[in-house]
């Protein structure tokens, strides 16, 4: 049976980077951030509900979700984030279940569910193993500021909108440190896959 590995961590700790390394090792990756974009695509019920809740001001001129505007709103106000999550999370959960069913048909080495909110939104029952990607908070903040062109305060607000990384590490079956080079992280990924295949033999 194909193992389903839940891959999570904090914002910008390197989940997508680690997911890419798993893909290079023959795993099938499901990206929950991509699925979340599908959940609010133009003309979707998700987008309609968001407009009902946040108003037409949340759309761009071309009628798409203004992600930057919504991000600035919800990452700075937990009540607004709760409202957004109430709309999108049930849709995301259904789409993830469909994606997992499709992935199983391919019979890959393992299925990786790359989901930043795996623990916050309780997707644990959908996966066999929980892997948390971690870096020290100063590294996380610096990488987030560079990647998203944010100032320190904006980066801190995004980090604070998620469960503390130390709490996620406590809930993990395996923790992958992504503080070193990508090559070093690749070694951790290969070792983890070897370890998991020893168990399933
Ligand atoms: C708020 C939105 C519009 C911001 O869009 P933007 O393009 O700037 O960011 P993107 O979607 O690429 O997410 C970047 C990272 O932000 C963090 N993040 C996203 N949504 C949330 C959330 N609801 N709570 C906490 N952190 C979140 C994650 O670490 C994610 O990897 C967008 O993140 C969104 O629609 N979020 C709700 C959907 C969701 O929960 N996605 C996570 C998938 S489980
Ligand atoms: N080992 C590493 N060394 C240096 N930079 C890295 C390393 N791993 C990731 N990065 C960089 O850090 C940033 C965050 O990585 P990545 O996008 O993989 O994180 P993420 O956890 O998927 O983020 P998000 O939660 O926003 O989806 C990216 O710009 C990436 O190129």
TrEMBL record:
Function: Catalyzes the phosphorylation of the 3'-hydroxyl group of dephosphocoenzyme A to form coenzyme A.
Species this chain originates from: Furfurilactobacillus curtus
Reaction(s) this enzyme catalyzes, per UniProt: 3'-dephospho-CoA + ATP = ADP + CoA + H(+)
Cited CDD domains: DPCK
Name by which UniProt lists this protein: Dephospho-CoA kinase
Root EC class: transferase
Pathways per UniProt: Cofactor biosynthesis; coenzyme A biosynthesis; CoA from (R)-pantothenate: step 5/5
Compartment(s): Cytoplasm
Main location: cytoplasm
Molecular function terms from GO: kinase activity
């Amino acid at each position: 049976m194909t193992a389903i590995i839940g891959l999570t961590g904090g914002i910008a700790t390197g989940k997508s980077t680690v997911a890419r390394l798993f893909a290079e090792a023959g795993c099938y990756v499901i990206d929950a951030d991509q699925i979340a974009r599908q959940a609010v695509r133009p003309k979707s019920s998700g987008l309609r509900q968001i407009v009902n809740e946040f108003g037409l001001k949340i759309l761009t001129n071309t009628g798409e979700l203004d992600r930057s505007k919504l991000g600035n709103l919800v990452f700075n106000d937990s009540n607004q984030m709760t409202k957004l999550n109430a709309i999108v999370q049930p849709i995301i959960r259904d789409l993830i279940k469909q994606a997992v069913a499709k992935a199983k048909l391919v019979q890959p080495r393992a299925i990786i569910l790359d989901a930043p909110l795996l623990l916050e939104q309780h997707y644990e029952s959908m996966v066999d193993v929980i892997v948390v990607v971690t870096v020290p908070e100063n590294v996380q903040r610096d990488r987030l500021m560079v990647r998203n062109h944010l100032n320190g305060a904006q980066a801190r607000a995004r980090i604070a909108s998620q469960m503390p990384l130390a709490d996620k590490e406590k809930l993990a079956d395996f923790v992958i440190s992504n503080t070193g080079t990508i090559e070093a992280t690749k070694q951790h990924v290969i070792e983890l896959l070897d370890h998991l295949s020893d168990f399933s033999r």
